From TrEMBL:
Keyword set, alphabetical order: Cell membrane, Membrane, Sugar transport, Transmembrane, Transmembrane helix, Transport
GO CC annotation terms, alphabetical: plasma membrane
Protein name as annotated: Multiple sugar transport system permease protein
Transmembrane regions listed in the UniProt entry: 73-95, 107-128, 148-178, 213-236, 264-289
Subcellular location per the Swiss-Prot or TrEMBL entry: Cell membrane
PANTHER family, per the entry: ABC TRANSPORTER PERMEASE PROTEIN (PTHR30193), INNER MEMBRANE ABC TRANSPORTER PERMEASE PROTEIN YCJO (PTHR30193:SF37)
Single Gene Ontology BP annotation: transmembrane transport
Pfam families linked: BPD_transp_1
InterPro entries, alphabetized: ABC_transporter_permease, MetI-like, MetI-like_sf
Family membership noted in the UniProt record: Belongs to the binding-protein-dependent transport system permease family.
Membrane topology: Multi-pass membrane protein
Organism: Allorhizobium borbori
Domain ABC transmembrane type-1: 68-285
């Protein structure tokens, strides 16, 4: 009886939080899924049910396909750069700087993650500027011709990947440092007695034991990469200065369809596709790491 009362009290205590979470997080997802089956025009009173017509139209929309390709390249580019770099940097901070400077290095690495996105993107836009940017000035010392970083579609994608990786790196390093601090020291001492070098201990002990951390950081980084928007909006401007036109990404395409073209139902179908892609990739990552763990 006492156990039941405690359980009831606990459920009543967390019920308001669950209700707020459901309203703020779950309800928008369900409502977006519902809107994707309607021709929902803000300016029209009539909003007919059209089934899968929005999704069929997506398959032939070259703007959506371009946005999907660009977003996928950016997301996986950030993932490929961030995970190995964060793991190595965290290891160097943990094993090489066990002193009063450790806190300084951790803070220095984490600062880009907490810096406001807009001023950070504007600073990077100045760095990549074709005429006045320090990047082209530095490359000129090596005989490299000035590059139009923000006006070439391929180079613009690379610039966005660099900016997103720079921002994501600090958080990933901090999470990896937490993992390193919780690894059993006895295993490393045993490996050292057996003649294992530092790199061997890192590769055969640290990396396998940090797989749960790697999974979490990979999922968070990939989701963040697929939700890229402001970076493309600020960096990738076209020659006339229109923001975000040089590199089209999914979130930007959704916003334009919603608030410029007033096609809310069509934008909702794009959001559903984005959600499905993120869920699928997350499940694949869980499956791959689980199989490696069993092996």
């Amino acid at each position: 009886m006492l156990k039941r009362k405690r359980w009831t009290f606990a459920m009543m205590a967390i019920l308001p939080t669950l209700a707020i979470f459901a309203y703020v997080r779950l309800y928008p997802i369900v409502d977006t899924l519902r809107l994707s089956f309607y021709k929902w025009d803000i300016l029209s009173k009539r909003k007919p049910f059209i089934g899968l017509e929005n999704f069929r139209e997506l398959m032939g929309d070259h703007l959506f396909q371009s946005a999907l390709i660009n977003t996928t390249i950016i997301a996986f580019g950030v993932l490929i750069i961030t995970i190995p770099a964060a793991l190595v940097i965290a290891a160097l901070i943990f094993y090489r700087t066990r002193s009063r400077l450790s806190g300084f290095y951790e803070t220095a690495v984490f600062i880009p993650h907490v810096v406001s996105l807009v001023p950070a993107a504007m600073a990077w836009k100045w760095i990549f500027d074709a005429r006045l940017g320090p990047l082209n000035a530095a490359l000129s010392f090596f005989g490299v011709e000035p590059q139009a970083w923000l006006f070439d579609p391929v180079l613009s994608v690379i610039c966005i990947i660099v900016l997103c990786s720079w921002q994501a790196l600090g958080y990933a390093v901090l999470i990896y440092l937490v993992g390193f601090k919780n690894l059993p020291v006895s295993l490393y001492e045993a490996a050292r007695l057996d003649g294992a070098s530092g790199p061997q201990s890192f590769w055969h002990l640290s990396v396998p034991m940090l797989k749960p951390i790697t999974l979490y950081v990979s999922v968070v980084t990939l989701i963040s990469g697929f939700n890229v928007y402001a970076q493309a909006f600020i960096l990738a401007s076209d020659a006339q200065g229109a923001p975000g036109r040089q590199v089209r990404v999914l979130v930007l395409d959704m916003l334009e369809n919603s608030f410029r073209n007033y096609r809310v139902g069509y934008a909702a179908s794009e959001a559903v596709v984005l959600l499905a892609i993120v869920l699928l990739l997350t499940l694949v990552q869980f499956g791959l790491l689980r199989e490696k763990g069993k092996a």
